[in-house]
């Protein structure tokens, strides 16, 4: 039994942010019904990294566990009626359609809350549901670029570089997840449902609360230096440095301690809080010249002895094999109906009484259509007729 056991979520979202938010609700025990076209959700046909799988690609599988699939044509009157009937039984309704699409399909907040006033309706968008950018495509890379974050790292003159993960998608997903949980808590206290609006632009701004406040409140300009640096608003040395056999991440060490650990007496008299910013390039260059003298393992041992913040730079193979990752159970392994035994990232939280779990892998298109229509009271013969008419799709 999970924290959200007994709650139902209707998930009409596509791509990453919406499906990830809905999956997290499913991980906590909610019955998540993924409503997708009879041909299947877009992510089924656009495998990230080219990992196609047998019948479910890795990217879809990673974002849609703990869900049931209802494959339905929302352009058909009875298709919309089925989803309306489902929404009347639900606690959360989540969609990330382009502006105007939910209204055209009859899946907007006014319609859904009219059917179920207690429902928590989560609407996700790229830039907001009004304003000059409302019709722009909300895509992770585009929002990373617009967020300003790309110019907080690296070296002046170098091209801005995106993060090594779909950062804005993930941040937006967790904003929607958090908003849904908060609105459910409000409903438990008052009996009232409500609309929760989340957009990628606001999520990208909000997650930079420290950096942007340094700029807006402190008036400190965002300036990259002539040496590579991990973040414009953090004192040097801060970043990734080449060693004799690889790389070392080094974060905000005390300069007097670092001077001893690295045998760099020129750092000993510097003030970390003042010089660490005003002489950032100089400090970075000094450290960068020293670290290739030893291996990463040697420097890690030295840094640990001096209580300096340092760590290795991993690739995915290193990450998966790491003893702390294995100890934490950061990945989960389970059997999937068509993909066999799979290993994917697990859960970002733990509960002593109601731990999250994988109850089912990502569904096939319409794998649960008959099951869900039966729960909604449709006779089997009518479901069969709707399948034949193309209103529904089933995985037999």
From TrEMBL:
Species this protein is from: Nonomuraea deserti
The entry's keywords: Transferase
Endpoints of the signal sequence: none
SUPFAM superfamilies to which the protein is assigned, alphabetical: CoA-transferase family III (CaiB/BaiF)
GO molecular-function terms, A-Z: CoA-transferase activity
Annotated TM spans: none
Protein name per its UniProtKB record: CoA transferase
Pfam families in the cross-refs: CoA_transf_3
């Amino acid at each position: 039994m999970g924290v959200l056991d007994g709650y139902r979520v209707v998930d009409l979202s596509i791509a990453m942010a919406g499906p990830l938010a809905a999956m997290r609700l499913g991980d906590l025990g909610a019955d998540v019904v993924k409503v997708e076209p009879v041909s299947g959700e877009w992510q089924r046909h656009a495998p990230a990294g080219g990992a196609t799988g047998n019948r479910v690609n890795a990217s879809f599988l990673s974002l849609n566990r703990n869900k049931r699939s209802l494959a339905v044509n929302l352009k058909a009157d009875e298709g919309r009626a089925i989803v309306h009937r489902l929404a009347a039984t639900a606690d959360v309704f989540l969609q990330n359609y382009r502006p105007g699409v939910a209204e055209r399909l009859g899946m907007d907040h006014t319609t859904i809350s009219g059917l179920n006033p207690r429902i928590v309706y989560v609407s996700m968008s790229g830039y907001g549901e009004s304003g000059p950018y409302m019709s722009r495509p909300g895509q992770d890379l585009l929002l990373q670029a617009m967020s300003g974050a790309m110019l907080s790292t690296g070296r002046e003159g170098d091209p801005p570089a995106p993060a090594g993960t779909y950062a804005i998608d993930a941040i937006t997903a967790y904003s929607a997840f958090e908003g849904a949980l908060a609105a459910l808590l409000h409903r438990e206290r008052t009996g009232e449902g409500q609309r929760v609006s989340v957009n990628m632009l606001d999520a990208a701004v909000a997650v930079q609360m420290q950096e942007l406040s340094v700029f807006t409140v402190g008036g400190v300009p965002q300036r990259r230096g002539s040496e590579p640096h991990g973040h414009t608003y953090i004192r040097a040395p801060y970043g990734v440095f080449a060693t004799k056999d690889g790389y070392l991440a080094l974060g905000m060490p005390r300069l007097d301690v670092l001077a001893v650990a690295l045998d760099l007496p020129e750092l000993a008299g510097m003030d970390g809080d003042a010089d660490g910013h005003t002489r950032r390039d100089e400090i970075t260059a000094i450290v960068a010249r020293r670290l290739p003298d030893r291996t990463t393992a040697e420097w890690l041992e030295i840094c640990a002895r001096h209580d300096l913040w340092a760590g290795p730079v991993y690739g995915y193979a290193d990450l998966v094999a790491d003893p702390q990752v294995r100890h934490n159970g950061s990945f989960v392994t389970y059997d999937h109906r068509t993909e066999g035994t799979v290993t994917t990232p697990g859960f970002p939280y733990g509960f002593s009484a109601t731990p999250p779990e994988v109850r089912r892998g990502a569904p096939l298109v319409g794998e649960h259509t008959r099951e869900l229509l039966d729960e909604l009271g449709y006779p089997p013969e009518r479901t069969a007729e709707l399948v034949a008419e193309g209103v529904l799709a089933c995985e037999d």
